[in-house]
Amino acid sequence: MVDELFEVFEDLFERRGKKKKDKKAQGNEAAVAAPPPAPPIHCISCGARNEGAAKFCLECGELLPSPGEEFRCVKCETTLPLKAKFCPRCGARAG
Ligand SMILES: [Zn+2]
Ligand SMILES: [Zn+2]
After folding, report:
1. How far is the CA of 95 from the centre of ligand 2 (A)?
2. 73 CA to middle of ligand 2, Å?
3. Which ligand minimizes its atom distance to the CA of 78?
4. Rounded to an integer, what distance in angstroms lies between the CA atom of residue 27 and that of residue 4?
5. Strand bridging mode 70-72 / 49-50
6. Per residue in 51-81, pLDDT tens?
7. pLDDT at residue number 45
8. Of the N and C termini of the chain, which has fewer Cβ atoms inside 10 Å?
9. What are residue 77's phi and psi, to 5 degrees?
10. Between the CA of residue 94 and those of 33, 51, 66, 90, what are the distances in Å?
């Protein structure tokens, strides 16, 4: 019985030590792992390539289309923001 108790205690201490180590390792992994990159967005005004997370064009300040706030041109399938009235590529009326 006593031996068993000791074994249980040893096991507990071992687990605690491992847990601490695991936590540290996980933290490092999380810091290294980058979030999945969002697809780049091309400005409808000047065509500049912007990061997927960008909301405004880095070149001209135009509001960029963001997921859920965009639609595609019926003619050329260019992605347009909801406020667009005409497609900048082909001139088709949008909306
Ligand atoms: Zn732009
Ligand atoms: Zn178009």
Report:
1. 12
2. 5
3. 2
4. 34
5. unpaired
6. 888 889 999 998 887 666 677 888 998 878 7
7. 84
8. N
9. 65, 20
10. 40, 24, 17, 11
> 14 and 51 in one domain?
no
73 and 95 co-located in one domain: yes
pLDDT per position as a tens digit, 20-63: 555 555 555 656 777 677 888 888 889 899 988 888 999 999 88
Distance from the alpha carbon of residue 54 to the mean position of ligand 2, in angstroms: 22
Centre of ligand 1 to C-alpha 19, Å, is 50
Query: 5 C-alpha to center of ligand 1: Å?
Result: 70
Domain of 28, in residue numbers: 1-33
Indicate which ligand has the atom closest to the C-alpha of 61.
Answer: 1
pTM as predicted = 0.38
pLDDT at 91: 95
Q: What's the token pair of residue 76?
A: 């050329």
